[in-house]
């Protein structure tokens, strides 16, 4: 792992809200706005943008935690800008805070954690356990 970043650096991910982002469960559509689940995926991706530049060829990132405070709806065809800010790097763990906004309106905020591991180690950790 190499770290070309300093604490406070930012990465931006733009997400266009589509019908695929709406909140749906087994019983059907809950509401026709961006779901918390979809926001969470976008937030994790925004933090991963740091990981993509930090990991070596034989390494991969894996999520360790995600917090999301969903504050406001985002409607279909709106673009959410997720700004991830590098908060800390502890060994191989990368921690970011983020804010998701549509224009000046805060949609969500929170933190993400990802750990950079050797692909070989990750394969062993994620291998199915035989009972």
UniProtKB/TrEMBL annotation:
<dbReference type="InterPro" id="IPR054485">
    <property type="entry name" value="FlK-like_dom"/>
</dbReference>
<dbReference type="Pfam" id="PF22636">
    <property type="entry name" value="FlK"/>
</dbReference>
<protein>
    <recommendedName>
        <fullName>Fluoroacetyl-CoA-specific thioesterase-like domain-containing protein</fullName>
    </recommendedName>
</protein>
<dbReference type="InterPro" id="IPR029069">
    <property type="entry name" value="HotDog_dom_sf"/>
</dbReference>
<feature type="domain" description="Fluoroacetyl-CoA-specific thioesterase-like">
    <location>
        <begin position="17"/>
        <end position="120"/>
    </location>
</feature>
<dbReference type="InterPro" id="IPR025540">
    <property type="entry name" value="FlK"/>
</dbReference>
